[in-house]
Write a structure and sequence with these properties.
The protein is built from three helices and three strands, in the order ααβββα. It is an alpha+beta fold and 88 residues long.
């Protein structure tokens, strides 16, 4: 995978050049996958989604974000109760 996407992992930064359109990037990615004979499972692949869950994390174009479901679950947890058992 490193060889397939080596030029996309750490591309040179040019502040004057605008980001390419997503369609152009998708065509480039598919061409690289074909060149390296990598096949994708269409049931697991999702393209063009602005925000979604990936491995339990919320991922968007801005990176990883806090998952509101997990935050709500933690804040709504009851305090831990300690049960004391007397030994006799």
């Amino acid at each position: 995978m490193q060889a397939c996407f080596s030029d996309q992992i750490n591309p040179p930064i040019d502040p004057d050049r605008p980001d390419p359109p997503r369609a152009t990037v998708a065509v480039y990615v598919v061409a690289n996958l074909r060149e390296f004979n990598i096949k994708l499972n269409p049931e697991k692949c999702t393209f063009g989604v602005p925000k979604g869950k990936l491995l339990g994390y919320m991922v968007s174009e801005h990176g990883f974000e806090a998952n509101r479901d997990k935050i709500a679950a933690i804040t709504n947890m009851r305090p831990i109760e300690v049960l004391r058992v007397s030994r006799g």
